[in-house]
Amino acid sequence: MKNKGFSLLELLVVIGVISVMLAIAVSSYSTTQKKARDARRMSDLKTIQQAAEQYYSICGYSYPNFTSGASYAITCSDPAQTILPTEKLPLDPKNLNPYTCDGTCDDTHFTLCATPELGGTMCVSNQQ
């Protein structure tokens, strides 16, 4: 009479194949998450840049002061208008920190940067 079932060797081979496939899937998923966060960072920087350009055109041809980074709402006092409120201010998707000023940021120019997880730098500057 022949026993039905799997041998120990067959089970070990199947477990080994599943382990290799799982390791590849986890690695791919991690890279995909990093790419998504980097795309979000670039989008956030573009949003802040567009808000700063609106501020420039509405508030007497000067930029908001980003000396401490993009950590507060972008509002104009004359005329009174909120361009980018605090609750909509983009933050880094991984550590929830504000985007930082790279170099000197004042009312005539700014450069805001983020550090992508896949290397390199991401920066936006004033357009005027």
Order of helices and strands: HEEEEE
Task: Tell me the span between the first and last alpha carbons.
Answer: 87 Å
Number of separate structural domains: 1
Range of strand content: 5-15%
Structural class: alpha+beta
Radius of gyration: 25 Å
Instruction: List low-pLDDT spans.
Output: none
What gross morphology would you assign? rod-shaped
Question: Strands across the major sheet, in which order?
Answer: 3-4-5
Largest sheet: 3 strands, antiparallel
Fraction of helical residues: 25-40%
Describe the 3D structure.
The mean pLDDT is 91. The longest helix has 51 residues, at 8-58. The chain starts with 7 loop residues before the first helix and ends with a strand. It contains 1 helix and 5 strands. With 128 residues, it is an alpha+beta fold.
Report a brief summary of the structure.
The protein is of the alpha+beta class and 128 residues long.
